[in-house]
Amino acid sequence: MRIVFAGTPEPAVPSLRALVDAGHEVPLVITRPDAQIGRRRVVTPSPVATAADTLGLSAHRTARLDDVALEAVRAAHPDLGVIVAYGSLVREPLLSTPRHGWINLHFSALPRWRGAAPVQHAIIAGDPEVGVDVFQLTAGLDEGDIFGEVRFPRPIEATAGELLATLADAGAELLTTVVGQIADGTARSRPQAGDPSYAPKLSIEDGRVDWQQSREQIMSRILGVTPEPGAFATAQDARLKILAAVPATSEAPRLRPGLVAAHAKQVIVGTGSDPIALLRVQPAGKPAMDAGDWWRGARLSELQFDTDAQMTGDVGATA
């Protein structure tokens, strides 16, 4: 089957590779333009663009699926369009250009968490189950009929990045199966059932920890925004990224929300219930470090994180 593939980030790469490995012809890959990455703003191709180059596939870089993209797709004469986290909506007439239309691999148990950040929202909400779906792309937001699905219990300690990698591999296998069924005429779809919920793209402010919440809610927040946009706390006009944390040991004392102190070689923070222990942090403008090293360098007996202020800065520098 001739397939036009649209995708951008690393989680889309396993699907592209799986389709090629399954023997499908991919005359065109559509991906977002090269972007400036990192503190040095190095212009870097998307992971999908890099994979396409490795596989010897033609890649069309575009921020919008405009008339130029439409002509590129028409010139490829595709049987099917496949989209995995490309980063832009597909509209008519592009939507109906491939003979079988477009299918989408989505990293949630639809209709739950339609939108741009399903994995992050599922973790933040504490969902016990996660999944991937392959569905027929329509003009509505993730509303199409489902061709196939995979469901499994959410790994409780997995960050959004770790879970997304797991889902990407499971989704690539499912996607290849569905494409094969479409090719041989055995594919069957069903309408989505249930009340939808939505997962808009997260902002930097979504990473702010609310220390008044319970430990379970805070851990879900930290895991759900790691690695992007990243969890953080502020104190004394200063910001500290929280890169890794775990529930504190049962012997750790309860502290008032946001209070930071050392206990039994752990750096613990009070919450609305039991404390958490910081494992790895990053003060602004400094490299990531073990929480213990940061705490010893700060030379404090205790520190109060803000619970409602909107501040930025470097905790290590002002402590």
SSE arrangement:
Blueprint (H helix, E strand, L loop, with lengths): L1 E6 L5 H9 L3 E7 L3 E3 L4 E3 L2 H9 L3 E3 L5 H10 L3 E5 L17 E5 L11 H7 L4 E8 L9 E8 L6 H25 L30 H10 L6 E5 L2 E10 L11 E5 L2 E4 L6 E8 L5 E2 H8 L3 E3 L10 H4 L1
Brief descriptors of the model:
319 residues; disordered C terminus; seven-stranded antiparallel β-sheet; 27% strand; alpha+beta; 26% helix; seven-stranded mixed β-sheet; elongated
Describe the structure.
- With 319 residues, the chain is of the alpha+beta class.
- Helix content is 26%, strand content 27%.
- The protein has helices at residues 13-21, 47-55, 67-76, 118-124, 160-184, 215-224, 291-298, 315-318, and strands at residues 2-7, 25-31, 35-37, 42-44, 59-61, 80-84, 102-106, 129-136, 146-153, 231-235, 238-247, 259-263, 266-269, 276-283, 289-290, 302-304.
- The chain has a seven-stranded mixed sheet, sandwiched between helices.
- Helix 1 runs parallel beside helix 5 (160-184) and helix 4 (118-124) packs antiparallel against helix 6 (215-224).
- The radius of gyration is 22 Å and the shape is elongated.
- The termini are far apart.
- Residues 309-319 have low confidence and may be disordered.
